[in-house]
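name: query_chain
kind: protein
chains: 1
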Amino acid sequence: MKFMRFLLIVCVIALLGAGIINAQAALPPTIVAMPAQIAGGRPVTITVTNKPPESDAVGLQTWTDQVARFNKLYPNVTINGLEYTYGPDTFAALIAGNQVPTLFQVYLTDPKKYIDAGVAADISTVFDANKLRDVYNKDIINLTIENNKVYGLPYGAYAMGLGYNIPMLKAAGIDAPPTTWAELETDAKKLTNRDKSISGFSFINDGANAGGWHFTILDYTFGATPADLIKDNGDGTYTAGFGTGASVDTLNFIKTLRWTDDVLPRETLDWGGNGTALATGTAAMVMMAGDQYSWIKTSYPETDMSTIGFAPLPAGPAGSVSLIGGNMYMISSAASDDEKEAATYFELWRLFDPNEEKAGLDSQKAQGNVVIGGPTLPLFTGDYQAARNAFDTPYYNLPVDNYKAFTDAISSGKVKLQVEPAPAGQDYYAAVGAAVSSILSDQTADPATVLSDAANTFQSTVLDHLAQAATPAL
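structure:
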């Protein structure tokens, strides 16, 4: 018997060495102390958004199984799932109707308005009892903190980068993706082939919010900051500041790419179209969010992901800067204390329980054409993030080496992370998105004039009204 056990151990070691069996790192450490009881054992019901619809049978079963596992631990907690997914306009309607779910998702860039409006509950007591400020990436968790109080639990984050077609670059004699916009301009000229309908560089140019979003990311590398674009005057008023300075330099650069270099797509591209251009080889380099790298695999399964790289955005006068985005959960301030406790611990359990981490990855791995891994923004930091990485990496099915330069640059702080302009960020995006469209469609348009006009209109139609709304009636 001892000989047989010895022989089995030898065989396993040999298979591991041959790569036939993949070694799995230990589970991440347990860092959240879950209570023996929630709500003192009293019956409590919470509503939770983002329940998968019946049309997503696999996702719905995964969600149902997870809730069942939580109910084994806390049978007094009833979780009612809602298929609702967040949208700023639709969520405003929920607030107006006093129908805010107990646990609700918002974009990572939106929490301040719900904190200021008193919609989100302060969860600092539980958060700090588990010392989670030391665990979360500060660039991310700071978005949920107001007056040193914590109001949200981020669960997914991304930053912007440069997607590129590796074989195209090599064929053009380019050994590595560009690290500056000047290098990108040179490389894009080499990569553009109008006879084959290939553009050297692409970004969203839809003339609307998404186009303004991409313009702003580029603008940050040219030296603009959120406070420059929409200036807070400190007295309840705001001033549009994008009519001069770095923003004009940015739009002039775009004009050069379009009309002097002729390296940009000539058709209008939205978020999906921009990603499709990289996936299908009609653009050699593309500005995009890290999560769209994964989207390419799911949307275009025939694309060989080993040919797609993802690097930090090229540096401009202000260096390499990336806009941060993602999602978090918040708890309704209107909920009872028992409901707040149940919602907070349910989300902490989903995020941090080591067995849930494994169950989630195992579930994903069992699905067809699933994406695990990708150039996302690390949610956590230090030893805990390292332990998560060690455990998760064997599950990854995307080419990690192809986006390692991006993740290394983010982790090292080489890339500065920046937030969206506020307030009225979406209105701002629409204004500058239209300005970009004007430059791309009219060679004679002057960037300084176009932006100045857009800033003046944005001021009179949006920002001035914000100031009036903030002024109490006499």
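note: The chain has 19 helices and twelve strands.
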